[in-house]
Amino acid sequence: MSDSAYEDRLQAWVGRELVTRRPGQDPVNVPMIRHWVEAMEDDNPVYLDEDAARATGRDGVVAPASMLQAWTMRGYAASVSPDAERTGSDELTDLLAEGGYTSVVATDSEFEFHRELVPGDHVSVEETLEAISPEKKTALGPGRFISTVKTYRDASGEIVATQRWRMLRFRPAAKPEPAPKAPRPRPAINHDNEFWFAAAREHRLVIQRCADCKSLRHPPGPCCPQCGSFGWDTVESAGEGHVYTYVVNHHPRHPAFDYPLVVAVIELTEGTRLIANMTGVEPGDVEIGMPVVLDWIDPDPDLSLPVFRPAVAEES
Amino acid sequence: MSVLPGAAAIAGIGATEFSKDSGRSELRLACEAVLAAVTDAGLQPSDVDGMVTFTADTNSEIHIARNLGIGELSFFSRVGYGGGAACGTVQQAAMAVATGVADVVVCYRAFNERSGTRYGLGQADRPVDVSADRAAYSWMTPFGLATPAQWVAMFARRYMHEYGATSEDFGRIAVVDRAHAATNPAAWFHDRPITLADHQASRWIAEPLRLLDCCQESDGGQALVVVSAERARDLPHPPALIWGAAQGSGNDQHMMTSYYRSEITGIPEMGLVGRQLYAQSRLTPADVQAAILYDHFTPLVLPQLEELGFCAKGEAKDFVADGNLELGGRLPVNTHGGQLGEAYIHGMNGIAEGVRLVRGTSVNQPGDVHNVLVTAGTGVPTSGLILGASG
């Protein structure tokens, strides 16, 4: 099913009734009001004291406005009963789950009260879907905001209150990825070595060459130890060589690396050596003299380093 | 010929206890060690007029001088390159005494290397700057090559490949050290000898190095008092005369990572030190009856034996396996237990043991010791001494 087909099925619910008019189990009554105001520590006398209520111009005690939803709640047992009648709300929940929106969090609730409830009122509620938003990125994961309107009526059908109810149905983010590896220890870049790391970022392995006597040197430096020249350029290595020596590191462990970690001194066919990691070979299979070829790794966005893998033997 | 040989002597040695958690400041450790050495020499702090330590030491001369009431200093100097500095401090002191710029020079090193900053954790997260020293790490740490054990392991692997040495050959160094530590009450590993099987069963740290190839990390301080040979004869202990004192930095020298030389199985900077020591002292390896060889990691003890002329290239493994490093052997080594067994005080505790060997007071005193060769850190610009009894 295409995304647009799913969207159409969702939007078809706009304006439809999710819960048909359903009366509360008990009429508005003083015992429930008493429990509520005690729990809420609301000592306004108009909820329990007839005289005080009349003194405010009312006919008698009234129910707290904030209790409105309480009069229509069915209780936990009824809400989870398998025998409960399926409602449009249940169908919409299934449709949202089909789209991966399996989790829910309430976001807004706005009430408009038409009159105060008094003991003896029998309240009912019905709920209609007002809007389903396009998918939004949220901190909880991608999701859709679902807006409904609940209408509360008395026994005669007169509206006593409306409630605009908004919730986010979302696709919970997948288990967090394992934390990205710590960055590798940074090379200290200065005037004498920056050319090498800049070339590495272009995946070019260069070797410093004396501009005068043409001897190669690594690690680089500002002056030729053979002839004393400060002039230099570079040549690009063919990227072939062999393992001159190597270690397999176990302890201590730096969070940038996987262990056991092979570090080798590679002797290039050009004659210079350099330190580099090995790839494509088990630590136990590395050998001094093993022919290797150059590859590259980009462990961090601004760091590329040469790595060497065993050369594939030419077929005879 | 040089004025240096025999001009000065080590007349006093002093140390703190060696521990894993001193519970005191590095400055206090330094003060305790210096005071103990001065006292051992039969001198007063006010007699000291020169001080030498490592660039790596956090305890500046002025702090120690002020705390101990040493007063005026006419000579102060520092030696770089980590543990390679150890014997170099004594060379500085001996030259100062021989040239008359100072009369009583204290060499010292004190740190909380176990409870404070541990070198073994490596340099991976060393702060970045643009200096050449820091830039040198750019060729190592981004690849995960960041600890002294790893740096040494690179040499060890090549040495094994070229000479057929094995992990057991490295292990024999650890066994000898720990045997000597076992009878040294000052050693951290007093009464705890190991077998070669223990060594082989210990976990990998950086192959081919196992845990028991690696020296300890220790808290402690060690100091030495250097005076003229003439003055030393009037002090309480038999003088340990400085017949040779040398530094060496080799061709294409790097800190711990001189992997770019045509061959890397030797320690050319130690060869350079050895040649100077023998030339200064007019001695040969045959004249040396005991040695303190820097043992931060066992593999680099083998090429030291070769560079210093005790055996031929590649033959150290056989020289060791034949028992030559044990008490009663040709060249008893690290009779205090070394840095694997006694403590890691950056080689300075080894110089103190060299003095005890000359005095005849080592807890593992071999018979008939006239001359002792002491080395400093390997893999770095280094130094060495030949200490001996009077004439």
UniProtKB/TrEMBL annotation, chain A:
It holds the Pfam family zf-ChsH2. Residues 12-163 form the FAS1-like dehydratase domain. Residues 197-232 form the ChsH2 rubredoxin-like zinc ribbon domain. InterPro entries: ChsH2_C, ChsH2_Znr, FAS1-like_DH_region, HotDog_dom_sf, NA-bd_OB-fold, Thioester_dehydratase-like. Residues 235-296 form the ChsH2 C-terminal OB-fold domain. Coiled coil: none annotated. This is OB-fold domain-containing protein. It comes from Actinomadura livida.
UniProtKB/TrEMBL annotation, chain B:
Gene3D superfamilies: 3.40.47.10. One of its GO terms (molecular function) is acyltransferase activity, transferring groups other than amino-acyl groups. Residues 261-379 form the Thiolase C-terminal domain. It comes from the Bacteria. It holds the Pfam family Thiolase_C_1. InterPro entries: Thiolase (IPR002155), Thiolase-like (IPR016039), Thiolase_C_2 (IPR055140). Keywords: Transferase. The keyword Cell division does not apply. This is Acetyl-CoA acetyltransferase. Signal peptide: none annotated.
